[in-house]
Amino acid sequence: DAKTTQPPSMDCAEGRAANLPCNHSTISGNEYVYWYRQIHSQGPQYIIHGLKNNETNEMASLIITEDRKSSTLILPHATLRDTAVYYCIVRGPNTGNQFYFGTGTSLTVIP
Amino acid sequence: DAGVTQSPTHLIKTRGQQVTLRCSPISGHKSVSWYQQVLGQGPQFIFQYYEKEERGRGNFPDRFSARQFPNYSSELNVNALLLGDSALYLCASSDKNGRDRYGYTFGSGTRLTVV
Asked: B80: distance to nearest CA of chain A, Å?
């Protein structure tokens, strides 16, 4: 069962930062937060993951609150190609180390 | 480098038939997982295999089975197809055993339509 809550949809203007929230209030200490995205009719694409520290890579930044009950994925300069469904996933031994996808957030980047 | 490859890309079957879907992981990856994605929903975990052994099974009926070969490729079999089995079937591979903090790489999937 998915252990995360995300808004069903969001819009973002092209060139602006897209901030996608995720609530995971029941996360355990040994569970990681992962973000994947899925562009229409393609397989999910890994974006980033973290445990408790903020993380950054070439695609995005992940901000995890100190109590680890929520996180935010930041796409610093959204482009039209970032239009996709974004999934926030909690994964660890308690989830059988599997990825349980919810319904995600459908992000639309507007020109 | 080739990513995760799945075949066929599209398939149409009739209710009651059997289907076999194939997946080749990224070279060097020993773990393969299968997911089902029904239209409008997120992917649902079906199976995970590592080193040819089943390491996890999701909440799917026994009509679904899978195996992993010595070259780490994998097949997903579905018997007695139902209309509700129509979905995108995704394969994901990892170079770890699944009990780790690394992400998986997904293929583009096989679109199965049952009529």
From this structure: 26
Residue A93 one-letter amino acid: P
| Listed residue (B94, B106, B49) closest to A87, CA to CA | B106
CB B92 within 8 Å of CB B32: yes
Task: Enumerate the residues of chain A whose CB falls inside 8 A of the CB of residue B42.
Answer: 2, 85, 87, 101-104
> Mind listing the pLDDT tens digit for each residue in A1-41?
558 999 999 999 999 999 999 999 988 888 889 999 999 87
Torsion of CA A39, B96, B22, B12, to 10 degrees: -30
Contact list in A for residue B105 (CB cut-off 8 A) is 46
Structure tokens at B101: 């903090």
> What is the spatial distance between Cα B115 and Cα B112, in angstroms, rounded to a whole number?
10
Give per-residue pLDDT as tens, A85-95. Answer: 999 998 877 67
Is the CB of residue A44 less than 8 Å away from at least one CB of chain B?
A: yes
Per residue in A55-70, pLDDT tens? 999 999 999 999 999 9
Tell me whether residues A46 and B105 touch, CB distance under 8 A.
yes
Q: How many CB atoms lie within 10 A of CB A12?
A: 19
pLDDT at position B100 is: 52
CB contact under 8 A, A49 and B107: no
Q: Per this entry, what is the length of chain B? A: 115
Asked whether the beta carbons of residue A99 and residue B43 sit closer than 8 angstroms, the reply is: yes
